[in-house]
Amino acid sequence: MNNSILEIACFNLESAIIAAKAGASRIEFCEDYSIGGITPSYEDILQVKAQVNIPMFVMIRPRGGNFIYTEEEFEEMKQQLEWCQQNKIDGVVFGILTTDSRVDETRCYILVQLAKPMSCTFHRAFDEVENIADALETVIRCGFDRLLTSGQKTTAIEGAINIHRLMEQASKRIVMIPGGGVRPDNISELKNITGATEFHSAALKKYQKVADRNIIQDLLQRLD
Question: According to the model, what pLDDT value does residue 73 have?
């Protein structure tokens, strides 16, 4: 029996529908693939919620670029998060760093508390921290349920050893999700090296903006 979870990053409604129909376990919903995803419009979130029957985690990110936010941007994140909570979204995905490349523990803790009972994932802002061992402990203290990371490399398969070390350090205190260039031709190896049970992929063909059903199904088969 396959206990692995495949999360598909979806940047539009069409991708979300395809992902659900193809058998994905969960959707991370955001917009603007070119900048790594930002918070989608409330209208789009509600459309996905109405038409997709698998869990949806929404990205809370006010803009592209770095993950160091002004007080105004932090307030915007709180408002987006509260809206998601009021509309019974399954989970949220966010991350805030300090100017010295650490996890902003104060702000992240506030958002995690505000998000309850939604599930919280710390996203790939983690791959920009100065010290990943210290950062992992901070993410866990903040109360996050999951951590999405490529192990500080361009792709998760390149960072697989680092992800494995993080999983050993975490010792089941948080769920580690390898993400970044996760494809059918590397997901089995990634699973073997890291020992992870949850995986993250956009399942996009080159130059396309809509998730590919065949890629999703291939990913699932190789996780079996």
Answer: 98
Mean pLDDT confidence for 132-159: 98
Instruction: Give the domain extent around 211.
Output: 5-223
Give 152's contacts (C-beta < 8 A, 6+ positions apart). Answer: 127, 132, 159, 162
Question: To the nearest 10°, the Cα dihedral for 214, 202, 21, 38?
Answer: -160
pLDDT tens digits, 119-144: 999 999 999 999 999 999 999 999 99
List pLDDT tens digits, range 44-67: 999 999 999 999 999 999 999 999
The number of distinct structural domains making up the chain is 1
Rounded to two decimals, what is the model's pTM? 0.96
Helices and strands (H, E) in the chain, number of each type:
8, 8
Task: Say which CATH number the domain at 130 has.
Answer: 3.20.20.380
| 84 Cα distance to chain centroid | 16
The H or E element spanning position 108 is helix 105-115
Distance CA 194, CA 122 (A): 18
Rounded to 5°, angle at Cα 164 from 158 and 166: 110
